[in-house]
Write a structure and sequence with these properties.
Layout (H helix, E strand, L loop, with lengths): L5 H18 L3 H6 L5 H10 L2 H20 L12 H19 L3 H21 L2 H12 L5 E4 L16 E4 L5 E11 L6 E8 L10 E7 L5 E3 L13 E11 L13 H38 L1 E2 L2 E2 L4 H29 L6 H25 L11 H9 L8 H13 L2
Parallel strand pairs: 1-4, 2-4
Antiparallel strand pairs: 2-3, 3-7, 4-5, 6-7, 8-9
The protein binds flavin-adenine dinucleotide.
């Protein structure tokens, strides 16, 4: 793939119109007020028919799974051509790119709820768990959070994990632990909570398991939103669980599989990391657009600043970053069209590059705008603060380096 198709461009125009009409007027409240992003996201999904599509897709999936479980013939399902799969990925990426021009936080809130939380339940859950928890997340009737990070365990998410589940002797479990930096944490209705099964073995040998928790369960506390540098349209909070008693139906998959939690989290890392390319593309495209416009109109020393070579160098570097990131987005779509996807190392390289390029581009945009760049009104300062998180969440830059190097050095 070397460019967006006409169909893609039409969808992009529709998404742009929606954002201009429905989201841009609320940017101030999203950014500086306490307006959670969820109603606007719901409206967006509904407007573009995503809710109906999600419902229909879910119904077909569950019908197949039920047939398999009951050993009856599976309902006929037309196999999608690889091109359709690629096209679907493109259609998922376009709204991410467009929304990130204004609000990367909204993409984060949506991605964690629908992407990470619902996907985790769909990947590992039983049919009953999927029906109970995944469907309302896919339609955004409910908001989801995916909780692995703890005050003492971030990059070393599994090694230093302290949250525990103990069998309670009645077929259920007793959960304890604290999580931090959890996207949607303050508002989440459904939480995938990762912890270690305390079965008496040393912590490093314990299985990592995931439980699904509901808002309001006795023993579960959800903090207020944490104050942070950027990404204000994505509420982030702490979760704590004290002697929370759950039945086995809350254990994802209802099986204590050794390392199931680790495997699920790793596959989540790959999708999280590749998703950063689309986010970075939206941020970089918008910074470049705003910067070109400013370079044409801002006059100093009797000429538009775009005539100065040092400003031209900034614009040229932004364009190089935009092209490279766009190529990584196209590569993902092209791979999907051929039934392939990035390995974890490739996804890590993709995230490392895109996150760094987005931050560098934003910083250059702020510089190009001079004092105005430091003012909220010109928007590049918000994009700059928001972009920084791409180098931190989903694995820091340094952790991406370790994953790339491990793959390169493997014999
Ligand atoms: C806005 C936001 C939203 C988030 N949302 C979620 C969420 O929804 N769910 C969730 O579970 N988590 C979430 N996180 C947590 C995020 O994934 C972690 O912050 C991230 O993985 C880094 O962990 P840490 O903050 O503990 O940093 P640390 O791991 O303490 O790292 C500190 C520094 O040491 C470096 N470092 C650590 N290990 C190594 C190493 N081996 N080699 C070299 N350098 C190293 C790091 O790169 C970093 O520079 C979110 C974070 C933010 C900021």
């Amino acid at each position: 793939m070397i460019e967006w198709s006409e169909q893609h461009k039409q969808i992009r125009t529709m998404v742009r119109r929606f954002i201009a009409a429905e989201i841009v007027p609320h940017l101030e409240e999203l950014e500086h007020g306490d307006m959670p992003p969820y109603d606007l996201l719901r409206k967006m999904l509904k407007t573009f028919g995503v809710v109906d599509m999600a419902r229909a897709q879910f119904a077909r999936r569950i019908a197949r799974e039920k047939a398999r479980a009951e050993n009856t013939p599976e309902p006929e399902e037309r196999t999608k051509s690889p091109e359709e799969v690629g096209n679907e990925l493109a259609m998922r990426m376009l709204p991410i790119i467009e929304l990130c021009r204004y609000s990367p936080g909204m993409v984060t809130a949506l991605g964690v709820s629908v992407g990470l939380t619902a996907s985790a339940i769909l990947a590992r859950g039983t049919i009953a768990q999927k029906e109970r928890w995944a469907l309302p997340l896919l339609t955004m009737e409910k908001i989801g959070a995916w909780a692995i990070t703890e005050p003492g365990s971030g990059s070393d998410a599994f090694g230093a994990m302290k949250s525990t589940a103990k069998r309670d002797g009645n077929g259920g479990y007793l959960l304890n632990g604290s999580k931090t930096f959890i996207t949607n944490g303050p508002h989440a209705d459904t939480i995938v909570f990762m912890c270690k099964l305390d079965d008496g073995r040393p912590p490093q040998d314990r299985a990592v398991v995931s439980f699904v928790l509901d808002k309001g369960m006795p023993g579960l506390a959800q903090s207020k939103r944490l104050r942070k540098m950027g990404l204000h349209s994505s509420p982030t909070g702490e979760l704590s669980v004290a002697d929370l008693r759950v039945g086995k139906e809350h254990l994802l998959g209802e099986r204590e599989e050794q390392n199931s939690g680790r495997k699920d989290a790793k596959s989540t890392f790959t999708s999280e990391r590749t998703g950063v390319a689309a986010m970075a593309l939206g941020i970089v495209e918008e910074c470049l657009r705003l910067s070109v416009d400013y370079a044409r109109t801002r006059v100093q020393f009797g000429q538009p600043i775009g005539q100065f070579q040092l400003i031209q160098l900034k614009l040229a570097k932004m364009e190089v970053a935009r092209m490279n990131i766009q190529n990584l987005v196209f590569r993902q779509i092209e791979m999907a069209s051929q039934g392939k996807s990035m390995t974890l190392a490739e996804a890590s390289a993709c995230k490392l590059y895109c996150a760094q390029a987005a931050v560098e581009t934003c910083l250059e945009a702020v510089q190009l705008f001079g004092g105005n760049g430091y003012m909220a009104e010109y928007r590049v300062e918000q994009l700059c603060r928001d972009a920084k998180v791409l180098q931190i969440y989903g694995g820091t830059d340094e952790i991406q380096v370790t994953h790339i190097a491990r793959d390169l050095l493997a014999e």
